[in-house]
Design a protein that fits this description.
Its EC number is 7.1.1.-. This protein has 201 residues and is an alpha/beta fold. It is 32% helix and 12% strand.
C-alpha cells in the first residue's frame, strides 16, 4: 500500500498585486526560495494527529531544520496551516474563517485520515468528509495517525511544490464553471435538529 503524501491543485479566487504578478523570472525564483524555507505553521489540531505534529516539531525530528517554524502566534502570522484530526460540521466554519485570516500566499497540509476524508468516522452524520470540502489543500498526508516522518515528507513535498510555483498561475482568476467552495452557512444547513419536547412547536 502506497502511503506517500500526494498533492493537488484546487482553483480558488485569490488576490495579488500586479507588480508581484509581473515580477521577472529570476525574482520569482528568489521569492519561491524565500517562501519555501520560511514557513510559519499554524497547527489546527483537532484530535490525536495533533500529538504527532507536536512530536515532529520536537528535538528528535526537528522540522525547524527544514525551514519550518512551528506554532505561529496566530493565523495572521502564518504561511502554512496543518489541519490534523477529525473536522466536524460544527468546526468547519471555524476552520474556514481561520484560513481566510491567513495572508497570501498560504498553504494547507491535511494531516491524517480524518482530515483527508473523515477517516474511521466518515459515515458519521456530524463529520465533514475531508477538509478539502471547506478549504483548498496543497498536500495530503495519509495515516491513522501518520508518523512524524510522514509529516516531514509532506513538508518536503510542499516545499517542492512552492519551488516550482508560478505566481501568475497561482493567483489567476478561476476558470469559468469552476466548482465554488461552500459557504459557512451552507456547511451548517441541514444538520440534525435537537429532539423537541412535548408541547414545543
Amino acid at each position: 500500500m502506497d502511503v506517500t503524501p500526494t498533492t493537488t491543485d484546487l482553483p480558488e479566487p485569490r488576490r495579488l498585486g500586479a507588480l508581484a504578478r509581473l515580477a521577472p523570472e529570476p525574482m520569482k525564483v528568489v521569492l519561491n526560495w524565500g517562501r519555501r524555507y520560511s514557513l510559519w505553521v499554524f497547527n489546527f489540531g483537532l484530535a490525536c494527529c495533533a500529538i504527532e505534529f507536536i512530536a515532529a516539531s520536537m528535538a528528535r525530528h526537528d522540522f525547524i531544520r527544514l525551514g519550518v517554524i512551528p506554532f505561529a502566534p496566530g493565523p495572521r502570522q502564518a504561511d502554512l496551516m496543518v489541519v490534523s484530526g477529525t473536522v466536524t460540521d460544527k468546526m468547519a466554519p471555524a476552520v474556514k474563517r481561520l484560513y481566510e485570516q491567513m495572508p497570501e500566499p498560504k498553504y494547507v497540509i491535511s494531516f491524517g485520515a480524518c482530515s483527508n476524508c473523515g477517516g474511521p468516522y466518515w459515515d458519521s452524520y456530524s463529520v465533514t468528509k475531508g477538509v478539502d470540502q471547506i478549504i483548498p489543500v496543497d498536500v495530503y498526508v495519509p495515516g491513522c495517525p501518520p508518523r512524524p516522518e510522514a509529516l516531514l515528507q509532506g513538508i518536503l513535498k510542499l516545499q517542492e511544490k512552492i519551488a516550482n510555483e508560478s505566481v501568475a498561475e497561482r493567483y489567476a482568476a478561476p476558470a469559468a464553471g469552476a466548482v465554488q467552495q461552500p459557504t459557512p452557512g451552507e456547511l451548517t444547513s441541514g444538520l440534525v435538529e435537537p429532539p423537541r419536547r412535548e408541547g414545543e412547536r
